[in-house]
């Protein structure tokens, strides 16, 4: 009991829930048990599950896994396969010291298989790979051309004060039903979601400020089509896969060009086509040249048509 054979660590709760759900589908006919541990959810419930049956595959966020490990509920000395997902994001979020603690509890690197996934292979990521693996094979998938080939990209030059009007009119006039909107800060995400809801467009927010159970429900409602718009920060939006997102809107351009590629990659997945629209205002237009440099081409900057800038009708 409490001795997983495969361990998958991911930085965010949503990602853990998603990986565990995919793992459960993939192992459906194998008799293998998949469990997931995330912070912000009922500890005792997770403990009961752990005590009720053997655990073959464990998917967890670093903090919650350490809680279980330090209480002596989970032992990692039988791990045969160790997976670190989104290694670059774990670095950004400061999880590496916790991950080190976890890895120390697993068998020696010669006695386990280690897989490390990362969107970017920075020097830091490569240095971690060296410490944790033996003579690793490196597989790189070219991201730039591939990720964006099926996504039509637009940039609208728009004053900051007109951004919300433009967002509202784009969604309303085109009857879009599955849109992901990105902003850089949690307070911005909250404000956009509140205004859309007030103006009669069904929206949910996805950021670190939203309690875990609400985030899972929000994702479910968006996936099932009960909600039209998901407004998210980069951390919350990273790695989320929902079929059929037709449009990604960058309410603010990301400060890191890589995040732009991740954002627009939420649409146009698996051969479907998609559209991304970025709003470049006086505060964030400076972020455009580094994005174009990463993509290797210019993105045409347009003025939005006047009908998209009409005032939002006031609800009484």
Give the domain tally: 2
Quote the beta fraction. Answer: 15-25%
> How can the largest sheet be summarized?
7 strands, parallel
| CATH architecture call of the largest domain | 3-Layer(aba) Sandwich
**Largest sheet, spatial ordering of strands:** 8-9-7-10-11-6-12
The assigned structural class equals: alpha/beta
Amount of helix: 25-40%
Using only C-alpha atoms, the radius of gyration works out to 21 Å
SSE order, as H and E? Answer: EHEHEHEHHEHHEHEHEHEHEHEHE
CATH homologous superfamily (4th level) name of the largest domain: P-loop containing nucleotide triphosphate hydrolases
Calculate the mean pLDDT score and round it.
88
Silhouette: globular
Assembly context of the chains: single chain
């Amino acid at each position: 009991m409490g001795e997983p054979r495969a361990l998958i660590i991911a930085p965010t709760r949503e990602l853990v829930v998603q990986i565990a759900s995919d793992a459960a589908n993939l192992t459906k006919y194998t008799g293998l048990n998949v469990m997931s541990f995330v912070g912000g959810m009922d500890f005792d419930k997770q403990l009961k599950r752990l005590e009720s049956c053997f655990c073959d595959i464990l998917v967890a966020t670093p903090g919650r896994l350490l809680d279980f490990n330090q209480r002596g509920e989970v032992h990692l000395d039988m791990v045969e396969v160790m997976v670190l997902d989104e290694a670059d994001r774990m670095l950004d979020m400061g999880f590496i010291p916790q991950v080190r603690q976890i890895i120390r509890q697993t068998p020696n690197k010669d006695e386990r298989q280690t897989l490390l996934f990362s969107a970017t292979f920075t020097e830091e990521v490569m240095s971690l790979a060296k410490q944790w693996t033996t003579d690793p094979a490196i597989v790189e998938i070219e991201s730039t051309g591939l990720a964006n080939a099926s996504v039509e990209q637009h940039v609208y030059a728009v004053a900051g004060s007109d951004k919300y009007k433009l967002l509202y009119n784009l969604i309303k006039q085109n009857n879009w039903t599955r849109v992901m909107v990105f902003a850089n800060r949690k307070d911005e995400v909250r404000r956009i979601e509140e205004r859309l809801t007030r103006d009669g467009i069904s929206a949910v927010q996805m950021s670190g400020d939203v309690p875990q159970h609400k985030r899972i429900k929000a994702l479910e409602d968006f996936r099932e089509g009960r909600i039209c718009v998901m407004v998210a920060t980069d951390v919350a939006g990273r790695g989320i896969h929902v079929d059929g997102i037709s449009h990604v809107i960058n309410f603010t351009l990301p400060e890191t060009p890589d995040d732009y590629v991740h954002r627009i990659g939420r649409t146009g997945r698996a051969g479907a086509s998609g559209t991304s629209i970025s709003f470049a205002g006086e505060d964030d237009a400076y972020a455009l040249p580094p994005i174009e440099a990463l993509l290797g081409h210019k993105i045409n900057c347009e003025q939005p048509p006047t009908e998209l800038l009409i005032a939002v009708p006031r609800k009484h």
